[in-house]
Structures are given as structure tokens and as C-alpha cells.
Amino acid sequence: MMRALVLLGALALALPGCGEGDGGPQQHGANPDLPQPQRGLLPSMTIPRPAGWGDARPVVPQGYKIEAIATDMRIPRQTLVLPNGDILVAEGTGGSAPPLRPKDIIAGYIKSLGKSDVKGGNRLTLLRDADGDGTYETKVTFADNLNAPYGLALVDGAIYVANQDALVRFDYRDGQAEASGPPTTLTALPSAINHHWTKAMTASADGRFLYVGIGSNSNITERGMEAEVDRAMVWQIDVKTGAHKPYASGLRNPTALAIQPGSGQLWAVVNERDEIGPNLVPDYLTSVQEGGFYGWPYSYWGQNVDPRAQPQDPEQVAAAIRPDYALGSHVAALGVAFSQPEMGPEFADGVFVGEHGSWNRNEPVGYKVIFVPFRDGKPAGDPIDFATGFLNEDGDARGRPVGVTVDPRGALIVADDLSNTIWRVTVE
Amino acid sequence: MPRDRLKTGGDAVAAISDPGFVRPVLLRPIHPLHAILLAFPLPLFLGALLSDLAYWSSFHIQWANFASWLIAGGLLVGGFALLWSLVDLFRLGPARRGRPIVYFVLLLLMWVIGFVNALVHAKDAWATMPEGLVLSAIVTLLALLASWIGYSGFRRGEVA
After folding, report:
1. Which of B59, B69, B118 sits opposite A310 (nearest CB)?
2. Could you say which of A342, A399, B11, B36 is the most buried, measured as most Cβ atoms within 10 Å of its Cβ?
3. A79 with A69: CB under 8 angstroms?
4. What is the extent of the structural domain holding B49?
């Protein structure tokens, strides 16, 4: 098979990736190794090209099996398991960030080579396995004409959907397969430019609040500081009134949120900044402290100043919180879900993380689902691969994981937005 | 009588205005289309330099965006001027290549350093500084020198 990699880094001018090696520094856990920032004239780029699954399947641990429960989706991102076992899938593609520089046009084209060319569905699809045999025989559109839906939550008989520009609500009765009408808008969400358009969402344990992740409007303020008002933060939104307040800030792109069972603590996976080297900056998993500031854009991993963000703010840098757990640079974590004992003893306590995979690195990383074990409510130990094989032996991408959701009946649902598949991993 | 510039056919004739001593040097201006192409790099690269200075002093990102596009424009049109000067070199006999070679080399340096400058300006936000500012100044100076020589004209037969 043709080796279909775009290796811009091979250009003579692109010195950055030389000798970067596969291993790289140790970047998992609370104290990742952080090398010095570096950037040649061109950023390192390797875009694994779409290859399709064919007869191949993602590789899961022994004692588990994986099946495609829905194919031919239209860019599935996040999923929600409803009380009766139905699965809602948010499908769509957002973002309308205009190119500001020649670079934006060229980089946009190169990154598009690693994505599906299917048009985003802008809809919610419902999957149903009525007889519980593991085959989801029903696939119907629950609602359409949405605007790049992403975050999903069920609270007190209503389904909340975070579109890229607004938080909307559908009334829901158990067993319903189609929405009874168009949604009502609870509140608008920041959507100007929408460089990072995904609006991750989860509901507090008591159902009073929704938390919505709003990504930054740039990599590192290259669209101007003015574009970053109400960006790179998590909003807390009152379910009853729609009133919001910033809950935490400095989170560059909080792409998935989850509430920890028991403690009710909010956790997030966050995608960190690019273009300062293959091993900077680690994406991370962290508990989100109310009122906390996590560094972006002024600094990363605590007090490591990023001089690209000007003017700097030393007071903010001093206040920046170090995240709890590094996942590795450029892995692009886009999904997080707390596990349950039904997932089997080895994977009972911890979180699953869907890693969409890198572009800003010669040696691709991510492109898998990992499990971060917890002990006493905190991450403990190295991550364990849970679903791999998303890159084939030629370095092309069969799929790219996004959202992960634990089905309380003992299954992990994985949305794959490259092969447009919903995967279901179960204990055998 | 206009003594120091005479029109002879399409050629300009420059003369030293020393009474009693006239040594005519035939300076043919560059082709009008070549002149139009050469008219772009200096103002565009100068505009990029001024934009960089504005970004340097204001942190306002739009100036960095302006600089990126101005550099791209200077490279695009300047590239055609460079190509023209290269073709001209091959059309000349070796004896007449002196100043045209200087002209070509200046344009070439301007373009190559200008391209590096474009890549530097493709970095995000303040990562363009200070290298982008320094390179913009160098490229502007090279564009000035190339324009000066180009517009001074070349001896008859040097450049069509």
C-alpha cells in the first residue's frame, strides 16, 4: 500500500523535528518532562491520511470485544447513553474561522487531508438495541437542523445539546426516538470566529448546573487578545435560568468534561498549544477547580511562560494552576468518561480518554483510546491502551477516536469521526 | 538645448554636463512591464517593515497580519521581476553582464531572504519577533538597492 504521509518536515528548511525520536521525554502523569521550546522555519507536520478499516478492527484488551454498532454516520463526535440504553450521537462540523494570513490557508488545506470528506450531519442520531443482543438495529434521526452539536447531557427529563453557538434543550420522555419539535434555546454560547468550535458539556451531579467548555479562538493569541474574551474557559450555566458565570479559565481547549461519580468533582481533558516542538505542550486531564486559572495563554503547565502571548501578565502566570495529569503532547484528547465496575476489574476505577491524534509532530501520537487508572479519587499510574490500531502499519489512519461514553450495562461507546463509525467495546 | 538628457529613438542619452566635454552614455530604461513588476517589492516590503514596527510597539495582531500579506505580495510580483532579470542575463554576451548581474543578485537575495521572512511571519503571535522585524528591514534595503540599480537603466544592449 502506498505510503501516504505528508511529510512537510522533510523539507531542508524544517530543522525542528530532526532527531526527535519516537520515545521522546516521559510525559505522563503529574510531573511530565518539559523540554525547551523549539520551532524551525516550518512546524513539524505529519498528517496520517484516511485509510478506512476494511476487515480490520480496533484492538482491545484480552477479554474484551469491539463491534461497530453504526456506520455511515456524518461526523460523529460525542455520545450520550440514555436511561433505556438508547445512544444519542451528536454529528456535525463547526468552525467558521476565516483565514487571516497566507499561513492559515495553507495549514488549513494540509490539516484537511487527515479528515473525513463527509459533510457534517448537524443532527442527533439515536441508536437502539431493543432486544439487548448487542446489535443496534434501529438508527433514526432524533433531531436535525442543529448547528454543529457536540456536548450532550440529560437532566430531569430534558436533553441538553451544546451547539457551536447556543445551548438548546429538547423535552424527553423515556423511550422517545424522535424529538417532539424544534429545541428551545437556553442561552447563547460564545461563537464569534470559533477557531476551536466544540462546546463540550456535562451536568453537575445534582442537575442544577451545566458545565460548558469553550475553546480558545487561536493557537496562541494570533487572532488577537480581543478575540479571546469569554474563551478558553468553562462556563457554569444554571439549568433553570440559563444564567452563566465563568467557572474556570486559562484552559486552552477543554474538549470534554465529566463529573466524577461519588465526589461530584468536575474533570476535563484539555488540548494544549502547538508549534513549540514535538514534545510541548502536554495535553492534560485535570480536576477543574472553581475560579481556577490554568495558564493559557501566558504560561503552560504552571509557570512556564510562553512569550508568544504578549503583553504578558505576570500576576496571572503566578496564579496558574498545574494540571493533575499529563496525557502527552499533541495527542489531542477529545473524549473523557469515568469508568464503572461493570467495565471489568482492571478498568473499574479510572477514566477512558479518546485521543484524536497529532498533526504537529513528525512521529504521530494519540490515535487510540487509553485508560487512566485512579486510586482514592486521583489519577495513579501510567495510562493503559484500551483501543488501538487506529493507525495502520503504513502510518495511515483507519479512524480517529473522539467522544467516549461508558454505558452502565458494561460497555464503552467510542465515536470515530474519520471512518464515521460508532464502536462499542464490551466485556466478553 | 537640453544637454543632459536627449531622446534618441527609445533610448535615453545621459551626458556629463561639463561644457565642452560631452561623453554620451546610452542608458536604456528597463522594459515597461519589467518596470511595473519592479515597482512592487519596495513599497510592499517597506509596508511590511512599517507594519512590523507597529506590531512591535502596539502588540496589535492586525499589524502582523498586514505584514504577512505585504510580504506575500512582494514575493509574488518580485518573483516575476527576478525571473525577468534572470532571462535578461542569458540574453547578454558575457562582456556586458556586469551591472545586470549585480541587479539579479540583489533581487535574488531580496527574494530568498523575503521568503525566509514569510516563513518567520507564519509563526504565531509574538513568535515572529524580533527576527521578523530584522528580516523585514534587510529585505526592504535589498529591494531599495535593486530598484535603484534597475531604474537607473542599463547600457545599451545590457538589458532589453
Report:
1. B59
2. A399
3. no
4. 31-152
Question: Do A220 and B72 lie within an 8 Å CB cutoff?
Answer: no
The Cα of A87 is separated from the nearest Cα of chain B by a number of Å equal to 40
The complex's ipTM works out to: 0.86
Helix axes B61-91, A102-112, angle to 10 degrees: 90
Question: How far is C-alpha A415 from the geometric centre of its chain's CA atoms?
Answer: 11
Nearest to A102 among B69, B116, B126 (CB): B69
Nearest to B61 by CA among B133, B138, B113, B128: B128
- Average pLDDT taken over every residue of chain A: 93
CA of B71, closest CA in chain A: separation in Å?
10
Please report the residues numbered 281 through 320 in chain A whose beta carbons come closer than 8 angstroms to any beta carbon of chain B: 307-311
Cell numbers 484524536 label which residue?
A356
- Whether A347 has a pLDDT exceeding 60, the answer reads yes
Contacts of A219 in chain B (CB under 8 A): 124
Contact state of A275 with B122 under an 8 Å Cβ cutoff: no
Q: Which of B61, B116, B124 sits opposite A41 (nearest CB)?
A: B116
Cβ A383 vs Cβ A329: under 8 Å: no
Provide the pLDDT confidence category of residue A165 given band limits of 50, 70 and 90.
very high
Mean pLDDT score, A293-297: 97
Task: Tell me how crowded residue A21 is: count the other CB atoms within 10 A of its CB.
Answer: 12
Asked if residue B104 has pLDDT above 60, the reply is: yes
In a mutational test of the A interface, the residue from B123, B128, B129 whose CB has the highest number of chain A CBs within 10 Å is B123
Nearest of A248, A258, A343 to residue A295 by alpha carbon: A248
A102 with B126: Cβ contact below 8 A: no
* DSSP letter (8 states) at residue A183: P
Is the model's pLDDT at A10 over the cut of 60? no
Instruction: Report CB contact under 8 Å: B123, A275.
Output: yes
A78-87, A101-110, A281-290: which has the minimum mean pLDDT?
Answer: A101-110
Closest residue in chain B to residue A100, using alpha carbons only: B65
Q: Is A102 helix (H, G, I), strand (E, B) or coil?
A: helix
Give the three cell numbers for residue B114.
523575503
The total number of structural domains that make up chain B: 1
Domains of chain A, each with CATH number or no CATH: 5-15+32-51+61-427 (2.120.10.30)
The 3-state secondary structure of chain B reads: CCCCEEEECCEEEECCCECCECCCEEEECCCHHHHHHHCCHHHHHHHHHHHHHHHHHHCCHHHHHHHHHHHHHHHHHHHHHHHHHHHHHHHCCHHHCHHHHHHHHHHHHHHHHHHHHHHHHCCCHHHHCCHHHHHHHHHHHHHHHHHHHHHHCEECCCCC
DSSP character at residue A104? H
Of B62, B121, B125, the CB nearest to A309: B125
